[in-house]
Amino acid sequence: MKYDIIVIGSGPGGYIAAIRASQLGKKVAIIEKYSTLGGTCLNVGCIPSKALLDSSHHFYDAVHHFEEHGISVEKPSFDFTKMVARKASVVETTTGGIKYLMDKNNIDVFEGLGSFEDATHVKIAKNDGSSEVIEGTDIIIATGSKPSNLPFINIDKERVITSTEALKLKEVPKHLLVIGGGVIGLELGSVYKRLGADVTVIEYMDKIVPGMDADVSKELQKVFKKQGIKFATSHKVNSVERNGDTIVVKATDKKDREIEFSGDYCLVSVGRKAYTEGLGLEKVGVEVNERGQVTINDHLQTNVKNIYAIGDVVKGAMLAHKAEEEGVVVAEYLAGEKPHINYNLIPGIVYTWPEAAAVGKTEEELKEAKIDYKAGKFSMRALGRSRASGDLDGFVKVLADKKTDEILGVHMVGARVADLIMEAAVAMEYRASAEDLARICHGHPTYSEAVKEAAKAAWDGKPLNA
After folding, report:
1. 444 classed as catalytic
2. Torsional class of 80: left (φ above 0), alpha (ψ -120 to 50), beta (otherwise)
3. Which CATH superfamily is 160-270 part of?
């Protein structure tokens, strides 16, 4: 059983790498320890969370917004069991689609835990206790990540939970405590807030989504507060204790006072860490850094020349689309092509409502790098499309080089900005100026007009509709 390429892990990075390598004429095998393909993203991450976000959003609209559109319904209710079942169905269809793609592209799929025997041989330990060894000229590590934890927290997976358990609860919490104000915590907090839970987000930093532009963080927090989510920023969690069905979180605020929070569920959402457990990296001498991530060069190649690594298991943003791009890059590189990836242009997205999205540099990063820039900002509230739909919150901000007018960063909060951000990414890929974007005719009425207006505000300071 000899292959040109063996991929360990079938998440977005792994399965895309396998498909691209097969398209380029390679004989490919993929190893997955679980019974379904797709990794964290498709099974317990991106896809199921978006299914619940969409379902809960429909319910929230029925309760809060139908009336203003002239739609009268009896008091809306929801069947949480059915909602979760729909989520499971979406996941099943999506993961089944990956199996179809493996068959279509003649990729051999092995179920079991893959580990290195040496640099070219991988042992597959199967669930029935048997094992087999396959050989690969090149091997791609795509084993992803798992939720991080704080050392003093006991995650019992019942009341003190990670995102995995939060996606398959049997009931809506009465009061959900969320430790961590990042993307995952905000998305899952939004799901349960819409369904009637009290939600309190406890964040160590002084703002939520701390990696995003400060204006985005400020706008999101303002909107979420309006929706009823409570926030305790600049709070350091010291303990999490369970007493029956009650969870007590104790934290210290910025004035060094101990604050106590009480709820019936606690979601621990403090990031994710690279997953390399059981891989046997030590057998082949593959190096990892101080954070447990596999060390790679610019070609995503480890210190062992025929072993590569992609996605959450290496440095950089832990995003499915980043992993996909890296999978394509490695497959094409191994086929003798010369691919590239621009890490500055990988968009970051928060799928709450309103959504938030960003690409390129934040204002804080430009200031720190001492780059002279100009900023143009346009409110979604000023758009005819926003007024028609009732989605008035948010803005688009364009940051451009002060001398050359080249766009350096774009940051958005609003309806459908998860899709809208790609206009900015395309523009920046081709090094467009703010004037270039401002001079493109945008359809009216659309949300995308906010991009044109913000670009014009950055270019000449004179948006047309503000």
Report:
1. yes
2. alpha
3. FAD/NAD(P)-binding domain (3.50.50.60)
